[in-house]
Specification:
Blueprint: H1 3-38, E1 47-50, E2 56-57, E3 63-64, H2 70-73, E4 77-80, H3 100-107, H4 122-125, E5 136-140, E6 152-156, E7 160-165, E8 171-176, H5 194-211, H6 215-229
Antiparallel strand pairs: 1-4, 2-3, 5-6, 6-7, 7-8
Length: about 230
């Protein structure tokens, strides 16, 4: 095979393996749900289906994850708890994986430790509140390392996203997810979005301060990670 044919073959194998894995997971989840129904436990059991990050399946020419673009930034989150969550409920607010622990503790009637940075979304999914965060922070610092994804951080709202690739380069990207959901047009220097850019920069600074995120801290984390994984 030539280079193009080999790439196509690898992609097909990759997709077959990935989709086969997903099909197996779906079957397993179905068996769990069936058991809960048959055992009469469904009404009082909280089932959560999620992952660490989303995954690229050829979008932007990539596979794997780690970049802040939508395909890996967004993660699946399905929750079934008939006692409190109405079937078919769709929540479009910005929930994060750091919210999981406070939420589970809330359901267990245990107060979350003060050092936890997330928020319980129990009332949100139950339809008891509409008050929620307006933006989320993302940070990726594992470079240079095995995955070779450049260090970057950013802020995202329901409509806009601002990213900064800051290590050995200095590049800013900004996207309007309403008009450009595939994030193919960088509007960072578009005068029509000057007010949006200013707002996103402000929120980015505020969120980095709130979560204690900094370039110095990321360098420390990376050093610790490389030392721990050396020789593996």
């Amino acid at each position: 095979m030539n280079e193009k044919e080999l790439m196509s073959w690898r992609f097909q194998r990759y997709m077959q393996d990935y989709l086969g894995t997903i099909a197996g997971i779906d079957e397993g989840v179905g068996q769990v749900l069936d058991y809960l129904d048959e055992a009469g436990l469904a009404e009082n059991t909280i089932v959560v289906y999620t992952s660490d990050q989303g995954f690229y399946l050829g979008e932007h020419g990539w596979f794997d994850k780690r970049f802040m673009y939508e395909e890996s930034f967004r993660t699946p989150l399905l929750v079934r708890y008939p006692k409190e969550i109405k079937p078919g409920t769709v929540i479009k607010e910005l929930v994060q994986n750091l919210d999981f622990a406070p939420t589970f503790l809330d359901y267990a009637k245990i107060e979350a430790p003060a050092e936890m940075q997330g928020e319980s979304f129990r009332n949100l999914v139950a339809g008891k509140t509409t008050q929620w965060r307006d933006a989320v922070l993302y940070t990726y610092y594992e470079y240079p390392s095995i995955h070779m994804v450049k260090r970057h951080y950013g802020v995202a709202t329901n409509r806009y996203k601002l990213m900064h690739f800051y290590y050995d380069i200095d590049e800013w990207e900004m996207y309007d997810l309403q008009t450009d959901p595939m994030e193919m047009k960088n509007i960072y220097n578009d005068p029509a979005y000057a007010d949006v850019q200013e707002m996103l920069h402000k929120r980015l600074v505020e969120l980095r301060e709130y979560y204690g995120d900094s370039d110095e801290l990321n360098n420390k984390y990376l050093k610790t990670y490389l030392e721990r994984t050396a020789g593996k």
